[in-house]
Design brief:
Keywords: Hydrolase, Magnesium, Metal-binding
Structural class: alpha+beta
InterPro entries: IMPase, Inositol_monoP_metal-BS, Inositol_monophosphatase-like
Number of domains: 2
CATH topology of the largest domain: Fructose-1,6-Bisphosphatase, Chain A, domain 1
Helix content: 25-40%
Bound molecules: D-MYO-inositol-1-phosphate
CATH architecture of the largest domain: 2-Layer Sandwich
Largest sheet: 8 strands, mixed
CATH superfamily of the largest domain: Fructose-1,6-Bisphosphatase, subunit A, domain 1
GO molecular function, one term: inositol monophosphate 1-phosphatase activity
Number of strands: 15
Order of helices and strands: HEEHEEEHEEEEEEHEHEHEEH
CATH class of the largest domain: Alpha Beta
Distance between the termini: 44 Å
Catalytic activity: a myo-inositol phosphate + H2O = myo-inositol + phosphate; L-histidinol phosphate + H2O = L-histidinol + phosphate
Number of helices: 7
Pathway: Amino-acid biosynthesis; L-histidine biosynthesis; L-histidine from 5-phospho-alpha-D-ribose 1-diphosphate: step 8/9
Strand content: 25-35%
Strand order of the largest sheet: 4-3-5-6-7-8-9-10
Length: 265
């Protein structure tokens, strides 16, 4: 079923909103249900329930589409629309009753992300983007902040779940920290990317993200004028994702590349 990006976006906002309300109502008293790649990589009952809710609703409204979800993997559809879903990005924040967590839903057509919604229930924020049509937060158009020099930049980052990867990320951070205004570790990649789109951080980088962590939020950032790429200018995946307005992107890129930020460890 062909669909315009705006139609896919409306559905993304709807399903992400529904899952966000479900997660919000159940945040108190939530516990760890399971662990994944390491003991620090946790899953709650709500990650699973929210993903089921989103998947069922998407496939009910658009049978034939396929869904790739963080918790349940991918299924195969009969058309070119695929949904990329992170039911709760920032699960550790969610578990601790903190505010920075998001429901992230992106729609791909023939492999390109054309629509993305990131709902941050505890902030009351709904970030939206349709390809070529701009990005918004709660309906207000988003423009990234003007680039600042690296030594004036507030740089967000995040860490993976394996101890070896964390040790490598700490080494890189040790070299980055003295060269920037400050560092933030918010705990939800989608929220970090949307913060750059909104000018609440100047840049964001992280190694080892999964597609569902960034698919929707990278479109929001790009449509707001932020450059989002891998360190070698390939699409970001397990390589390091870097997001910043243009000049700052170059400066941070060169620093991270000189540190071998995506190659050691
Ligand atoms: C995680 C968060 C975190 C980032 C990790 C992600 P999850 O996503 O986005 O900020 O540092 O790399 O895996 O597991 O909470 O969906």
């Amino acid at each position: 079923v062909a669909a315009r990006p705006e139609e896919l976006l409306a559905l993304a906002v709807d399903v992400a909103g529904e899952a966000g309300r479900l997660a919000l109502e159940n945040q108190d008293g939530i516990d760890v249900l399971d662990t994944k790649s390491s003991p620090t990589d946790v899953v709650t009952e709500m990650d699973r329930r929210c993903e089921e809710t989103i998947r069922e609703r998407l496939l009910r409204e658009r049978p034939g589409d396929s869904v790739l979800g963080e918790e349940s993997g991918s299924d195969s559809g009969t058309n070119s629309v695929r949904w990329i879903v992170d039911p709760i990005d920032g699960t550790v924040n969610y578990l601790y009753g903190r505010e920075d967590w998001a429901v992230s839903v992106a729609a791909e057509v023939a492999g390109d992300v054309v629509a993305g919604a990131v709902v941050v229930p505890r902030h009351g924020d709904v970030y939206t983007a349709a390809r070529g049509a701009g990005a918004a937060c709660n309906g207000q158009p988003l423009r990234a902040a003007r680039p600042v020099r690296l030594d004036r930049a507030l740089v967000a980052t995040g860490f993976g779940y394996s101890a070896a990867r964390r040790a490598q990320q700490a080494e890189v951070l040790r070299a980055v920290l003295p060269q920037v205004r400050d560092i933030r570790r918010g705990g939800a990649a989608a929220v970090d990317l949307c913060s750059v789109a909104r000018g609440r951080a100047d840049a964001y980088y992280e190694r080892g993200l999964k597609y569902w962590d960034w698919a929707a939020a990278a479109l929001v950032a790009r449509e707001a004028g932020v450059r989002v790429e891998g360190l070698h200018h390939a699409p970001p995946d397990s390589e390091l994702l870097l997001a910043a307005p243009h000049d700052l992107f170059e400066e941070l890129h060169d620093l991270l590349a000189s540190l071998g930020a995506d190659t050691t460890g």
